[in-house]
Amino acid sequence: MEREAFEKLSLEHIDAVYRMALQLAKHPEEASDLVQETYLKALRSAERFEERGGGIRSWLFTILHNTFYSRVKREARGPTAVEEFYEADERETAPHEAPPAWDLRSLDWEHVDDRLKKAIFELSEEHREVLLLWGVEGMKYREIADVTGVPIGTVMSRLHRARKTLADSLEEMTAELGWSDAADEVGRNS
Amino acid sequence: MTERNPNSTDMPVNPSEGELLRMAADGELTPELQASMDGRDQQSDAPRVEFERELRRRVQNAMQDVAAPEGLRDAIRRAMVEDDAGTVATPLGDTTSPSFWAGVQRFAAVAAVLLVCASLIVVAALQTRPEHAIPTEQFTQITSFVTEQHQRACSTADDEDSRFIAREDQEIADLAEHKLDGLPPVLAFSISAMRDSGYRFVGMKGCGVPGNGASVHALFRPEDDTRKPVSLFVQQDTAELDLSKSACYFADCKVTGKRSIVVWRRDGFVYYLFSHDEAGLKTGQKAFGVPDAEKPL
């Protein structure tokens, strides 16, 4: 790909790449560093992108993912933390329970958005990354598997676990705010 | 029960109820699973599927309002240009041109020349083998990195307070403890020495100097406009670079090609001092106690 075309095309996705970097790094300055490194790496291997085909956005996310976890491995005090997580995740099974039946649209969204943000922020990096690729970037399971380099089964496990965590958090919120009756009512009627 | 190996690259054949409903909400059902979904109680499933779809919309609403900071796009453009100038000697498009390799005779000629050059290099290397061997590729990555980081840090002072987060003594000690497992002795005394020489300490932040050791970046700005900023990168010494402990090494800026980087090793850390200003380098060498002896890379 020509240098100028690459720059134009790749920079169209800078908000999405930065958004994901921020969610991974949890710090604006680290996120900017990550994004810059991601773009430079992408530039240096722009030819490989052509050979591989596919969307440039997924490719940027893949480079971002690899760059972030390389840094984690390099900088972590416990260098085996990432491997330990993957081992744990291999054993992890997706939640089998059916989703709740209550209607999210009946809730006060000012509270819900804040609660969701907090719950997402508290997810592990791996769960948060998969959740955001699915929820914000609208990716399919297979696309997420390509970006994160894990099998589809692991993507589904992480995604289902993350959604279950968010649903539990919202359920707690409805109980705290006294909305549980309404939620129960929707559930009973369904 | 779910019949699925988490390492499988395929969709589950017989998912649990929870997985089936979430896959339905996500539009990920295979034709077989769609048939099984169609045979279920629609009245009971519909609100659960809708819950998952609404949750996805809400995740999007809650998280999509983040945009890249002002200036990041320009910073990346600049970094790309610098990268072109520093490490990409020919346009990327040129390297993919098939015509260069099309002529067999030309290929043979080039191969012969390369063979002769390689032989000469091997002979020369054996005759003049340095006392300390430094991996060239890694060192190139490091010098590129410190150049980029210094350039970026110097390009704007607008948000440096939010980037160089450690400014007070305790913050510096905490960041050094967190990143480097301890405060490098050089940092303990050099900040006041730099201040005495007319350089304001902007702050320190974590960074990712290539290699296995964690690293930090400290930035100093001159009090007057006649000099240029000075950066000090400190990395845990994991003995990847076989540097002498009694000497320093000089390297060139990847952008300007001028001698702008001083490297030395001490007390379990490798230090990289960077400035585009010769006076800045000399001030830093004095303040940071760089060994006087100089060795070639």
Tags for this model:
heterodimer; A: 190 residues; mainly alpha; elongated; B: 297 residues; alpha+beta; 11 helices; 15% strand
Q: How many helical stretches of chain A?
A: 11
Residue ranges of chain A: pLDDT <50 for 5 or more in a row? 77-92, 185-190
What structural class do helix, strand and pairing data of chain B support? alpha+beta
Residue share in helices of chain A? over 70%
**N/C terminus separation of chain B:** 63 Å
What's the helix-strand series of chain B?
A: HHHHHHHHHHEEEEEEHE
Rg of chain A, alpha carbons? 19 Å
What is the helix tally of chain B? 11
What global shape of chain A is seen?
Answer: elongated
Indicate the percent of residues in helices of chain B.
40-55%
Which strand order spans the largest sheet of chain B, edge to edge or round the barrel?
1-2-3-6-5-4-7
What shape does the CA trace of chain B take? elongated
Oligomer: heterodimer
Report on the biggest sheet of chain A.
none
List the helices and strands and how they pair.
The complex is a heterodimer of chains A (190) and B (297).
Chain A: H1 3-11, H2 14-25, H3 28-44, H4 46-52, H5 56-75, H6 81-91, H7 109-122, H8 125-135, H9 141-148, H10 152-176, H11 180-189
Chain B: H1 17-26, H2 31-38, H3 42-63, H4 72-86, H5 92-95, H6 104-127, H7 136-155, H8 160-163, H9 169-180, H10 185-196, E1 199-207, E2 215-222, E3 230-236, E4 248-252, E5 259-266, E6 269-274, H11 278-287, E7 294-295
Parallel strand pairs in B: 4-7
Antiparallel strand pairs in B: 1-2, 2-3, 3-6, 4-5, 5-6
Helix pairs in contact in B: 1-3, 4-7
